[in-house]
Amino acid sequence: MRGHGQHVTQTDAANEHFSWRSLQAVTPFLWEYRGRVLLSLAFLILAKLSLVGIPLMLKKIIEQFENTPQMVVAVPLGLIAGYGLLRLFASLFNELRDAVFARVRYHAMRRLSTQVLQHLHGLSLSYHMERQTGAISRDLDRGARSASTILNYMVFSIIPTLVEFLLVGAVLLTLYDVKFTLITFGAISAYFLFTLAITEWRMEFRHKMNELDSEANNLAFDSLINYETVKYFGNEAAEMKQYDNLLGEWEMWGVKTQTSMSLLNFGQGAIIALGVTLIMWYAAAGVAAREMSISDLVLLSALMMQVFMPLGFLGIVYRQIKYTLVDMQRLFDLMHKQPDVRDAAEAGQLSVTAGEIRFEHVDFFYQPQRQILFDLCFDIKAGSKVAVVGHSGAGKSTLARLLYRFYDVSAGRITIDGQDLRDVTQQSLRSAIAIVPQDTVLFNNSIYYNINYGRFDASREEVEQAARMAHIHDFIQQLPDGWETVVGERGLKLSGGEKQRVAIARAILKRPRILIFDEATSSLDSGTEQMIQETLTEVAENHTTLVIAHRLSTIVDADSIVVMHQGRIVEQGTHLQLLQLHGEYHSMWELQQQEEQESGV
Question: The pTM is what?
């Protein structure tokens, strides 16, 4: 099952070291809006004072009737009005608290989501080559919602309940025997100890459910991205089987989660029932002994309702917080990943004056046991066009990744106008380069957006001119929706040639000093390729250009051709010079000429 083993290992590692330190991640959001938070807390305290005042007012009303039984026809309007006002104020202050805190809650979700996406964009290509997009998508969604949930619980559940406990405790100690306070807070302590023990035991179930949920989502996502491949091989049933097997495991852990929750709920209910029963027993005994009044019995009953009702909800809150911390843990594990390639502390802006590129004794490997490039030395003079050719696996496309500094060289260095790429910021480096890749991937947006992506501050006229230079303007005009035609996910609604022409237009619009064409015409037919080659030649004038080529006929005009074989440079020179050597390049040229003749090109 694809990806299963790796995902389990990562999740097990998270299970072994789960920390409440995830809570620290939400505190900056509270501090940023500390004025609103403090105002929310003030409204919270006022709401709780109103709530605790309600049973006290009820006691006063009952005492009024107890002390003056002959005047039952005289309704204590003032006390009843006070009772109603306290209920009104409790509701008002609660709603004001919610309204004031809404900005904090939604801003936290916005900031966290933005920070995570920014962090993902900051990670190196090595991470993105191995990522599981579907699983990350689910983790991001759960993590952002979890941050909002924790903030809500802290302000709307935990703090209010603690305030209410303190107020009720003060009333009990002031008005009644200490045994009532001891029983109340003894029941609360037993409730929390029981909840902590059972919830910790149940956390493994939640970890497993999250793990399987993310993995199933990733598998479904991957299956839909590769929809055509699934259809080509008729593997719909196999995809469904893998998906259903994962959901089967998820179902099993879900059942365990629910049954263990029933045990937890019953235990919590039993503790509350015992506490309330003991309080009412002693209160009833006090009334029978004429040590307490009926109004005291009513007040204690009302206070127990106010204490134990939120206590029951607080148990649910604790479980949910533990769950959300589990959900957030995966997100913060992601946030703790560091990029392999980082700007040096003293990195400056790249200054491109001429645009000369030098590869000086460059070695490179992804893993030490698998070296890709060996002692590469060549120059691309300012304004010149250098082509790199070689069989598949020779390391040609790796040069573009190193020039963009998606990876750092393992040895040697690469310079632009004498500046080591490791000494300048990645942003300034990449702003000076444009690439037309072999595999063009477009955003699921309009054609105009995808071309304009090369330079967002470009005018409409500049975008259209870039499209003309890439020979795609007339095609766009003929579409029913024209420039607003949506290209589909990854540009699937366009042919390979159309996508590459969009990519060429996008690179032209960027107006870079350095151009990279990574087999930029590999998806084009011969007629279109010839037109595009003329365009690329025109675009490359006055630019330093690196061409990674498969078809040798497209680079015969290059100022220099570098021939690579298994990560090493084996030949270097112009087209005519390399043909006269009768070496690797000559063999490749002869083979391609023969293939073109046989295919009638």
Answer: 0.61
